[in-house]
Model the fold of this input.
Amino acid sequence: MIKTDVLVLGGLSGITAGLSSKRHYPDKKVTLVRKEGTVLVPCGIPYIFGTLGSPKNNVIPDGLLESNGIELVKGEVIEVNRKNKLVILQDGQEISYDKLVFATGSLPMIPPIPGVNKKNVYPVRKEFDYLENLVEAMKSVKNLVIIGGGFIGMEFADECRKGRDVNITVVEALPHCLQMAMDDEFCAEAEAKCKEAGVTIMVNSKVKAILGDGTATAVQLSNGVELKADMIILGIGATPNTELAKNAGITLGFNNAIKVDRCMQTYSDPNIFACGDCAEKISFFTGRPSGVMLASIATAEARIAGANLFSPVHQNCGVISVFSTVINGRAFGVAGMTERVARQIGMKIVVSPHEAPDTHPGGMPNSCMTKVKLIFAKDTGVILGGSLSGGKSVGEMVNVLSACIMHKMTANDIVQFQMGTHPALTASPIAYPIVNAACKAVLPIKKSD
Amino acid sequence: MIKTDVLVLGGLSGITAGLSSKRHYPDKKVTLVRKEGTVLVPCGIPYIFGTLGSPKNNVIPDGLLESNGIELVKGEVIEVNRKNKLVILQDGQEISYDKLVFATGSLPMIPPIPGVNKKNVYPVRKEFDYLENLVEAMKSVKNLVIIGGGFIGMEFADECRKGRDVNITVVEALPHCLQMAMDDEFCAEAEAKCKEAGVTIMVNSKVKAILGDGTATAVQLSNGVELKADMIILGIGATPNTELAKNAGITLGFNNAIKVDRCMQTYSDPNIFACGDCAEKISFFTGRPSGVMLASIATAEARIAGANLFSPVHQNCGVISVFSTVINGRAFGVAGMTERVARQIGMKIVVSPHEAPDTHPGGMPNSCMTKVKLIFAKDTGVILGGSLSGGKSVGEMVNVLSACIMHKMTANDIVQFQMGTHPALTASPIAYPIVNAACKAVLPIKKSD
Done:
């Protein structure tokens, strides 16, 4: 029997939780158990199929664990015995713990479509060997159908086209791709960029069945249309991987995620914490459960969980939801609420758009128009969210917005924001779009209805 | 006599002040008077000599004024008559005002060096014709000496080398170039990048005289060394352009800048406001006068001044000082205090560095290592500043830091920061350097001395 003080179960957020606990409690023995030989950068998975070329180029190095004195055990945990504070591995090995962290992540959702189990239908799993096989299998594919036009689906479409002679069709049930994440005008822009790259996009399209004998040959839509396919990728979302926790009697919450408090401690057991996709999330804005899963949220939670194991240090403020993507060279990002979500929950809002080149003057090389749309609460002026599209700088501009949202800045605060500017790196100080959008919002916020 | 409600005197921050006042008081007549036919993007001036090729490509379009209903009067104001609330132009024209905004900017400092007035010695002025002549004159230059290794000097050195067969030497009196703005290790990195581009850098070097008959032929240093020169650029700083205000009896403060309160109202006259390089600045951190001049500060002040003319709306929180630059392809940025400044004023601080590639995995194309160093107050954990070097994303990362500083976030807050991440746009969620630097600072802050 191995004895450890801190036992972490799982991959990406597990690494971060391990590092965080080791930083805060350097005298404790920290052990990470996981099934996978190597862990992939989850957000990098679509890029294996184009830019990176192989899962080999998308590995999180284990050197980080070693150099921080974290033990790595490769194996599959089949039982958590809370009474005796130990876990049992598939090979019979036992590891006793003082504090346990679930970082078991999520599993791809498999929709109940007839034919979904045919051999050339691939959910997006995160295992190295599985993805290596998928890269290999894709070499001979002529007609690729991607079911689901969320981030995974759109990034796969954009990457799989690179260096391949392949027809790609994205099938999305909603009126827009990326609609769960972005407002309509940004969805439309992303769809247009994807089409420009030669991808066919079919929105408002429900899949009825996957056809073929053993091997899929076509995707049949509800309207009768059949799309020829020799490979089908399922990118319709993920579900918390919490079977092990459930079997150990840990209380689950929304969407079967593990119920945790603001310290990431489970409701069921003061010695057990959870973080990442397997842990229940609460919205920063409403306090209600949130289904958002992002690697960046997972690592933020992992830092909190790891620090709090023996004494609470940090509190989770809830999910702001900040992300970015790139579709055919154009970057998109959202921090916090979209206009759609704000209206859905009945918020009185002021919507304020602005656009400006991301260099100054606009004639600097590789200049790109950045579009921003900020959402403020009408009654208080507090920023609720912001959407962006533009060049690469969108990736960090969305983080400027995240900082503004986290600290509940108002339009008035953002007007006074002292951004640094430089001709080659940012918009001009006159035109800086986040500040200008805030300027436009100040008067509508002041006005009574 | 022209009558206006709001009269703005000056260039860059004048445009922003005009836009802001028109936004807040759409019924008021707003008039901008300036000497220059066209206003250049001030931060773009070094780029005229390389990347942009001509001042023509660095003009702030006046369409912004027109489309916002702001009157433009081209002329030089020679007197402000506060008693009668009017200004007199060189051509005898008078303009009466209700509210007046000084946005008269700054003038390049001319050091008291023997020979500084020779005809091929050029201070960095902002006028179109002057710069067009300078671009033309540079065509035949073989030996260019730049006196002053601050931002202007270093950016000129980096740009003037482009597409020219010219020997460039930067002469800096301090031990490092950029030393007024950045910590030593970042200065050293910038110097190395500049040298890599073929520029000669001489630090600890005081200029004794500029030699030659009428035309400068060499720069003589205090240690006797003579640098051959057929053009000399002076990049040693700027001084507030406040002669007009002084003559009108407006109280000046630090460095002869116009004394203003937090609303940007002058101490001397409730109907007169000032913003930009001509207005006195107060440090965000200490409340003491600050000599920092940046276009981004000028526009932030202009937004505040314009909004407050008839009724206070915004307050100036003081100068955080946020800037970025690019030297030979590497970006540098600082927000708030450097380690040097924090130690100079005797702060007890925790200094926390981290570095990570600006993509994830690091094998993504054009990946670049980002270095960050955060400075926290030891007693409170509040962030005081951050320095960065890396790729283009530094331009907006420094703005993430600015938001954190403006709202006095602590290391504890930043650990929980929910940054968005994407393989092509940012560091990985595990390695995101701002958050990781904060993580490393939490324990040293907690520890008592």
Remarks:
- Chain A touches chain B through 86 residues (CB under 8 Å).
- Chain A has a mean pLDDT of 96.
